[in-house]
Amino acid sequence: MTRWARILVLAMTLLVPSVDALGELRFPPPEFETGYQFPQTTVPGPKAVFHEYIDSAVLLAALLLATYLILKRRSRRAIFGLMILSLLYFGFWRDGCICPIGAIQNVTLTIADNSYAIPITAGVFFILPLLFTLFVGRTFCGAVCPLGAIQDAVLLRPVAVPPWLESGLRLMAYTYLGAAVLFAAIGNSFVICRYDPFIGFFRLTGNWNILIIGTSLLLIGLFIGRPYCRFLCPYGILLRHTSRLSKWRVTITPNECVKCRLCEGACPFGAIREPTGDWPRGEYKIAKRRLALFLLLLPILVAGGGWGGYALKERLARVHPRVRTAERVFLEETGQVEGTTNASDAFRTTGRTTEELYQEATAIRGRFAVGGALLGGFLGLVAGGKLVALSVRRRRTDYEADRAGCFACGRCYQYCPKERERRKKSTVGVTGS
Amino acid sequence: MAQATGQTRSRDNDVRYQTLRNTALVGAVFSAIFTVLLVMNLVGSAVLGPRRETRLAAMKLQIQKEPRNQQLLSDIRRLDLKIRRDRIWRLDFANKATFMLLGSVVVLLVAGRIAGNLKKDLPRPQQQPDIGEMQIEEAKRARWAVAGGVVVLVAAGLLVGMSGWVRFVQAQDAGPAFASAEEMRQQWPRFRGPGGAGVSAYTNIPMRWNGKTGEGILWESRVPLPGRNSPVVWKDRVFLSGADPNGRQVYCLDAAKGQLLWTGSVPTVPLPQGKEFKLMEDTGYAPSTMATDGRRVYAIFPTGDVTAFDFQGRRLWHKNLGLPDNSYGYASSLETYQKLVLIQFDQGDGKEGKSRFIALDGTSGQIAWETKRDTANSWTSPIVVDVAEQPQLITVAKPLVVSYNPANGAELWRAKCVGGDVAPSPICAGGFVFAIEPYSQLVAVRADGKGDVTKTHVAWHMEDSGPDICSPVSDGKYVYTLESGGLLLCINVADGKKLYEMDVKEEARASPSIVGDKLYLLDMKGVMHIAQIGPEYKEVARCELGEECFASPAFADGRIYLRGVDKLYCIGKAP
Asked: Into which CATH architecture does domain B179-380 fall?
């Protein structure tokens, strides 16, 4: 580790307590009889609707500009500038809310619960980046997402993660996505928002757990590019698969690849794919047998995952606050625990019977039986699908950005001699005219 | 020439690099300084703050004991101000320092990144190995990594699966939500014991004690807040309540040692504007005796606050029924039937239709049933008795004796036979319900009627006896009444004839009780007069407590619990 890295690690570590210091609890009002009249408690009014429109318009403008800068202008510096502006606006100015990652939950809840009306911004924020990705690749990740931006900004000494390890680690993001959808649909819980690791930095306050997770990710992010985006981001999973279908996307070279290999180490996110080599003798038959085996294994993994998720229904249901309250009240009622909690006290003021509460909790557990089975099945499908995909050989003749994994950050452009040639020509063209 | 230009460029780069590096260094130093300051600020808040607050809390407790200590009050104010000033200063400091720190980190990052770019190595591709083999090996490792991921997921699932979860069915295994009738008969679960009869289930009750010398006193325990309600006993616990104008409390004491096990606070709601809460001194702020169904314990206060606690002291629910319109202050005690809490909520003069009887579900506090009553405000307590082959909830208030089905509130019978401000509670013995009209008469009503039984089931009334406060007691053969002036009457249950009257020459508020063949009369001075049951008065013992008593005694196996104005006493022998 260089001296710079050491200094930065220290600075980032020490940042944590400073942020928490802002989150100190407010103190109770004085108890003395001074004749002071307490002002009536007021609450802030609902957010003005026009803010939602402004946010949506800014997002659209940022995506359009990002698309231009990434695909047409091909300027890393300009992309970086837009990224910082997005970080300031969507992150620090708008407090990191709303973001497309959390919007997954709003969309899920809209589908699962007829009584829930999705806010306009949530819908727009969910759909716009997906639409852009469908046509132009992950421009949102490259220049608009504040979570990606804060990680990108701290990346100082990139260390390559072996591609094989990346395949395994990405299972975490699928698990997070599946769990977030399940919990939003029937768990009455928005876990993505609750565990947003960078929200504490954006708001300059937050609880210790989240700040520690956020700081850890930023410290890792000094060396491993965008760890949250690559291994955890649930929205990133949706963008990965949408990006595979995109008509236009980042290309390392503006015209033809001369296979100079100068771009090999350019991507800190391991998203540059080299041309495929010749098929070794005898490998073809083994590969065919392997593929058949994994295709057979796929339904077994789905069924096994489904069964596992079903078996965990009672534990998964604990995410639901009503189930947690019911369990606590039950333990209190049967004398298995001492004392009460705010939740159990609050329940008792509702006037509802414990039997009603237990029945409701049991019904929620029933929903988690189905949801848990679906989650387990989904994870089995993902793992099986990955094994199948890794057993299929794709042919590549040029160095190219990975369709799914490229964040469209534009770092690779400057490594390509053809790109330099293009820039030189355009400069000459401009000065010559 | 070109070489010279190259050297100049390199020198410029070096200078730029040095400048950026030094800038980054300054950023780092500033970051470190602000971080240290913030950490010190945080430590100061975390250490000093709680210490001062603990001191302040202790001082606040002290001021409750010494409300006139002006010096202490002034110290509290000073410390409170200091704490607030310190907190505001620290918050302000943290706010400013955080922004300074962020600025320093940004300088550090920007300068560091640019300096890093200046020293970036150019890519130098090496000789490439066999790419085909390499990619096959890479795919193989990736498959293993995915398999490893699956193993981790399975392990995580197993770990989650190993954590326990709560089976709500255990609730049914835990038994019914209330104690059985047999259990209730063995305890003292309400005012004047099971059925409000004032009759002990045990005969091994002490007949000799002296509170002044400590003879026969197993323990005594000071009750924090005053109250004229009587203790109730369930196995190893004694419950009673206390209140003053500032608060209401429920107490649970260890029946064996008198140790206060827990205190439960009972909230109230602010009075509507213009309403005043006035009570007679004789009534006090906690006149109603608590009740228990063997699982939970219930209390009611003249403010209309009714609440339930479990035996561990957890408040299960609280309800405010509204401030009762009651001329001397609400004083009826609670009764239970299965898991219902029964509340006689008589108000007004009876013409306004304010009176009602309310049954709450003991587990939730929800209203199970409620019925209107054509009665005036009263101070009697309802009783549930098994009579005429059915459970009956019997109430007395001007002008009615009314019997209800305790399960649903359906009226079974009523007799219009009492008047006045009724305070003595009814009892049931020998198939009769005995009700008292103060300063006027004792009425016996047969309890096997239906509808209006005024003309058909009033067996007799005895006009020589009309206690104003104390409830009667009966062994089924004789019924005894005690006037607050100390006049005791013995009446024949069968025909209502007076057998004797005896002046004990002391004022009394506690109702008389029966233990085996003995009558226990507690006067206001705390003297228990023990007499033989029978057609003649024959005192067999007299025991002094040494403290004024208003509450009725509670009887348990080999013990008597007596509440004085300050203390609760347990009379009996150590096991």
From this structure: Beta Barrel (2.40)
Closest residue to A335, CB basis, from B38, B98, B312: B312
Q: Which amino acid is at A352?
A: R
What's the rounded Cα separation, in Å, for the pair A413 and A382?
A: 33
Q: Which of B80, B106, B85 is nearest to B28 (CA)?
A: B106
B127 touches chain A (CB under 8 A): no
**Residue B549 DSSP symbol:** B
Residues in B closer than 8 angstroms to A331, CB to CB, are 166
Q: Find, in chain A, the residue whose alpha carbon is nearest to that of B145.
A: A168
Between A165, A175, A358, which is nearest B153 by CB? Answer: A175
Q: Write out chain A's pLDDT in tens, 433 residues.
A: 456 666 666 666 656 555 555 554 455 555 555 566 667 777 777 666 778 889 999 999 999 999 999 999 999 999 999 999 999 999 999 998 888 999 999 999 999 998 998 988 899 999 999 999 999 999 999 999 999 999 999 887 889 999 999 989 999 999 999 999 999 999 888 999 999 999 998 988 888 788 889 989 998 998 999 999 999 999 999 999 999 999 898 999 998 888 888 898 899 999 999 888 777 777 888 889 999 999 999 999 999 999 999 999 999 999 999 999 999 988 887 767 777 788 988 887 787 888 889 999 999 999 999 999 999 999 999 999 999 999 988 888 888 999 999 999 999 999 999 998 888 888 765 554 3
Choose among A21, A361, A383: nearest Cβ to B42.
A21
Residues of A in contact with B109 (CB under 8 A): 8, 153-154, 156
Q: Which value does ipTM take for this structure? A: 0.85
Say whether the peptide bond before residue B399 is cis (omega within 30 degrees of 0).
yes
DSSP states along B170-199: HHHHT--SS--HHHHHHSB-STTSGGG--B
Q: Which of residues 347-406 of B touch A (CB under 8 A)?
A: 361, 363-366
Q: Name the strands in the sheet holding B527-532, side by side, starting at the edge strand that comes first in the sequence.
A: B513-515, B518-522, B527-532, B538-544
Domain boundaries defined on chain B: 2-118, 179-380
